[in-house]
Amino acid sequence: MQVILMKFFLDTADVAQIKLYASMGFVDGVTTNPTLIRKSGRKQREVVEEICKIVKGPVSVEGIGNSAEEIVKDGIEYASWAKNVVVKVPMTLEGMRAVKMLSAKGIKTNVTLVFSPVQALLAAKAGATYVSPFVGRLDDVSEDGMALIGQIVHIYKNYNFATEVLVASVRHPMHVVIAALTGAHVCTVPPEVFGKLASHPLTDIGIEKFAEDWAASLKGK
Helix, strand, coil: what percent of the chain each, to 5? Predict the structure, then answer.
């Protein structure tokens, strides 16, 4: 029986944070976008190549092309940077055409900015490797982002799609918990949220109490 584990991607272009969590064995991949690249203060290719050396799993890279031809041109270039590059493609009809073209070339894709089940269905039909529903942004407009994850997982199971559900725009640990309960394949988590996954106030209280009791025992109290 094959054991399937939820994968954690880190949603950042901050190499120091990637190294930190990768050293603990938590990072299965990385997702970047133009905004995250800009925050790094470095050139896209430079930072992506460094990330791909640290993380052997998928590293998503995004361009700004609108037409299928522009997206494919960028995608071919990005894929030449490292074997584990995945090309991020926007959820548009031109994007779906690009997914089809890139897939035919053996280049993996991650369809981004997905906000509805039917968008996810189209992405899977086009042959996307990953589909990225943005749960936090749906929550921001009073929709239930995690309900969307359940719908997509259900649809994909109905038809045995190979496309993996990559939960994006994660804002807090409960997004990760619900994603795992729902059966999503991947969560991409920003470092500030990832740091909270191992934390709980009762854990902190317990550690502090054990330390106090240990110090008291040394004094014979």
Answer: 50, 15, 30
Residue 52: give its domain's CATH number.
3.20.20.70
| Torsion, Cα of 101, 105, 109, 111 (10° steps) | 10
The answer to whether residues 112 and 88 touch, using CB atoms and an 8 Å cutoff, is: yes
Q: Strands 186-189, 7-11: parallel, antiparallel or unpaired by DSSP?
A: parallel
Can you give the residue range of the structural domain that contains 53? 7-218
9, 21, 29, 188 from 175: Cα distances, Å: 14, 19, 18, 10
**165 occurs within a structural domain:** yes
Instruction: Tell me the pLDDT band of 1, cut-offs 50, 70 and 90.
Output: very low
Question: Structural domain tally of the chain?
Answer: 1
**pTM of full prediction above 0.85:** yes
Q: Quick check: is 2 in a domain? A: no
- For residue 81, the one-letter residue type is W
Q: Is the pLDDT of residue 76 over 50?
A: yes
Kindly report, residue by residue over 176-185, the tens digit of the pLDDT: 999 999 999 9
- Side-chain-side CA neighbours of 189 within 13 Å: the count stands at 24
Annotation says 125 is catalytic: no
Task: Tell me whether residue 1 is in a domain.
Answer: no
Q: Which residue out of 73, 88, 100, 108 is catalytically annotated? A: 88
Residue 31, C-beta contacts closer than 8 angstroms, at least 6 positions apart = 9, 10, 11, 59, 60, 88, 110, 132, 166, 168, 188
